[in-house]
Write a structure and sequence with these properties.
about 350 residues; alpha/beta; TIM Barrel; eight-stranded parallel β-barrel; 12 helices; about 15% strand
């Protein structure tokens, strides 16, 4: 296991993160305690220290398990949890980004985790209602109180995050050092705004659903006309021609490399500068296979092949600005001759 600095901080986190949304069977699926413990111990034995959970995962069971598993060596682990989801349906203040819920959710998480502080506290999702000033000042307060060390933002628009960090910088508040997004070979739209924003502001990136809800494991791919297509993907995962072409390409690359499709998909993400995949599984055997992505890397030829089959349109304004004639108007033929950062 190697390590990365998380954004513009000195915090060292493992190059992959352990996702624990599957810790617990409260939702009717997931891993039992013994299976979850095996995954946690395997991750720790490999040198992993970056643990991802949330107050709402498996009704709090995930946090309880993480707290119990990490208790004997708490200082070694970078425990990240989240708040925002409503735990009291019908109560307008039972969820959201606002200060009242932030403080109450944090107290609950600390109790379930059995710890005095959280290493990284994520805003789980933008609620579209709470003023930016309230969110950033509230997060700065819990940091100054010693209950949180770093803060991050998950599932929010790039413009909102950029404004939040600029405001924090101007007022001397704690900025976001991490960004959590859905990012994989199927879902590359963060490349339009979110990833350039994170790069420009020095915000570290963690990627959830790196296997696209199982579509990139080879389970749903149709490799050739002779092979029978396996069961359909989950209803929320569209079976578009593009998605199937990507899934097939992953399987083909896996065969050439002599590795599993899941490892190929994870290593495509690991090849993206600054991106930390969050890996999780319902079964230890799946998790063990995923962990072996650390043993090797994709070659440039395979990366280029996967890039091409999964390519997206960047949309306006980037597609417009990248047109040859527009660059000529802007730069007079000098764009390629200017060394860029």
């Amino acid at each position: 296991m190697n390590y990365k600095l998380l954004g513009k901080s000195g915090l060292r986190v493992s190059e992959i993160s352990l996702g624990t949304m599957t810790f617990g069977e409260d939702w009717g699926w997931g891993a039992n305690k013994d299976e979850s413990r095996k995954m946690f111990d395997r991750f720790a034995a490999a040198g992993g220290n970056f643990i991802d959970t949330a107050d709402g995962y498996t009704n709090g069971t995930s946090e309880r398990m993480v707290g119990e598993f990490a208790a004997s060596d708490r200082e070694r682990f970078v425990i990240a949890t989240k708040y925002s989801f409503n735990s009291k349906p019908g109560d307008p203040n039972g969820g959201g980004n606002h200060r009242k819920h932030m403080v109450e959710a944090l107290h609950g998480s600390l109790k379930r985790l059995g710890t005095d502080y959280v290493d990284l506290y994520w805003v789980h999702a933008w609620d579209e209602l709470t003023p930016i000033e309230e969110v950033m000042r509230g997060l700065d307060d819990v940091v100054r109180a010693g209950k949180v060390l770093y803060v991050g933002i998950s599932d929010a628009p790039a413009w909102w995050i950029a404004r939040a960090n600029t405001l924090a910088e101007c007022r001397g508040w704690t900025p976001f050092v991490g960004l959590q997004i859905e990012y994989n070979l199927i879902e590359r739209t963060p490349e339009r705004e979110l990833l350039p924003m994170a790069d420009a502001l020095g915000v570290g990136v963690t990627a959830w659903s790196p296997l696209a809800s199982g579509l990139l494991t080879g389970k749903y791919a149709k490799v050739s006309t002779e092979e029978k297509r396996l069961e359909k993907a989950p209803s929320f995962q569209k079976q578009s021609e593009r998605n199937l072409a990507i899934a097939n390409a992953v399987v083909e690359v896996a065969k050439e490399a002599g590795k599993s499709p899941a490892q190929v998909a994870l290593n495509w993400l690991r090849a993206r500068a600054g991106v930390i995949p969050i890996i999780g599984a319902r079964k230890f055997s799946q998790f063990e296979d995923n962990m072996h992505c650390l043993d090797w890397s994709l070659d440039a030829r395979h990366v280029a092949r996967l890039d091409e089959v999964s390519r997206i349109e960047l949309g306006f304004p980037l597609d417009f600005l990248h047109r040859k004639e527009v660059r000529e108007f802007l730069h007079g033929g000098m764009f390629e001759r200017v060394q860029r950062r």
